[in-house]
Amino acid sequence: MPNSLSIVILAAGKGSRMKSPKAKVLHEICGREMLYYSIKAARALSDDVIVVVAHQKDAVIASMERYFDGLTFVIQDTENFPGTGGAMMEVKPKHDNVLVLNGDMPLITQHSVREFMKSDSDIVMSVIELEDSSGYGRVVIENGHVVRIVEEKDATDAQKEILTVNAGVYAFKRSVLEAYLPKLSNANAQSEYYLTDVIALARQDNVEISPLIVEEVEFKGVNSKFDLSIAETIMMDRIRRTWMDAGVIMQLPQTIYIEEGVRFEGESIIENGVRLCGDTLIANSHIKAHSVIEESTVRDSDVGPLAHLRPLSVLKNTHIGNFVEVKKSTLNGVKAGHLSYLGDATIDEGTNIGAGTITCNYDGVKKYQTIIGKNVFVGSDTQLVAPVEISDNVMIAAGTTVTSGKYESDMLILSRTPIRRVAGFFTKFFGKGA
Ligand code: UD1
Ligand code: CA
To answer: Which amino acids are annotated catalytic?
Structure first.
């Protein structure tokens, strides 16, 4: 089947209702652009995926090429042929069967798309039955036949009452598109060429049109930021469900944010309020409440509560406690229990990082590395002024500023201002009544 179907994804629109300088299809859901999801579903079913672009086309093309290769991009002439029908005019599908998807339908799945290929009608069009049909094109049905789709802006008050709407996915025989796209007119409220008018033109010639009833949870169109939030909620539910089915334990899953790029291995526990972003892997680990992990790998470790792993952190057999921030660091068999910043560091087995330890990795111009060997005891409130390298089996006394350089194995590093004890000072300073 994949080789008998071309899929066209319409992604050239501006998306004015998003009220954003960014093209609509580039708005993100669970960490990936909306358009990514429809291309992903299309790719699973077809070797001929064509994406129609125009508005911010360079940005749209560049962002999709980060995920997919071999896509065909067609540029719509939005000056002369605006609208979803205009978008189809330059498209040259390879196959006889052409599935058209709107690019603002991120909830679509391969399974839902497959249903369209089961019928052999000249046109299969998706319809949804809604309680509130606002925003969608209304489907006019007479004597059991679909006769036309009326866009909201062109609809009469009576037509606006129609609760059967066009979901925006269609399977056409290529010959139908070839016959009717040239006949579209822009005599409507938006002066656009509507793909939906193909339905009325085909109906007049008694071309067979089969409606396929679909669910909004998979076919919701995203036009506004409110729609975006609803679509993200649905997508997030799917992501969490998938990983729970794969063995991940989630406490209060509704409070956990997990992006599309996140992967899990084995059995992990994710507590409430955790945010996992980007290209992150969590394997056999416990992520405690309200921790944020971005683009990092965590194996056989526990993190949090309230910890922050910033991009490119790699943890193995490690304990990270509350208020610890780690960035671009590799920690293997390390304990950092409280209130620390570990950036651009490599820290080895058996090392304990005391509370309040800071890697001073930045001199205002460049970033420098901190390398700490095995079984190092880093006392509380230590500052490590990078570049600094500490060998195995070293003790750093609490409060030490470890200046840049190399420190050999087996030593004590200590910098401490000698304490002064000034007897009677308090009373002298504040007076007797204090
Ligand atoms: C469209 C349908 C409507 C349907 C709804 C379902 C038309 C005329 N209307 O309306 O019947 O109920 O989808 O969600 O088709 N696009 C282009 N080029 C353009 C204009 C739009 O490629 O010139 C793309 C957009 O990027 C978007 C998709 O087509 O991904 C749909 O456009 P949009 O403006 O959102 O159409 P709706 O008004 O939602
Ligand atoms: Ca839409």
So the answer is: 338
* In a domain? residue 434: no
Tell whether ligand 1 has an atom less than 6 A from the beta carbon of residue 340: no
- Provide the pairing of β-strand 138-142 with 145-150: antiparallel
Q: Taking ligand 2, which is a single-atom ion, which protein residues have CB atoms under 5 Å away?
A: 104, 221, 223
- pLDDT for residue 293: 99
Residue 354, classed as helix, strand or coil, is coil
Where are the strands (E) in 107-248, listed by range?
123-129, 138-142, 145-150, 164-173, 209-213
Query: Looking at ligand 1, which atom is closest to the CA of residue 219?
Result: 14
**Which ligand 1 atom sits closest to the C-alpha of 193?**
8
Tell whether the model's pLDDT for residue 1 goes beyond 50.
Answer: no
Per residue in 188-217, pLDDT (tens digit) is: 999 999 999 999 999 999 999 999 999 999
Q: Is the CB of 133 under 6 A from ligand 1?
A: no
Regarding whether 306 and 243 lie in a shared domain, the answer is yes
CATH number for the domain spanning 303: value is: 2.160.10.10
Cβ of 211 less than 6 Å from ligand 1: no
Task: Tell me the pLDDT tens digit for each residue of 281-316.
Answer: 999 999 999 999 999 999 999 999 999 999 999 999
Q: Examine the domain organization and report whether 367 and 253 are in the same domain.
A: yes
H-run or E-run covering 112:
helix 110-114
Same domain, yes or no: 102 and 147: yes
Q: Show the domain range for 258.
A: 225-413
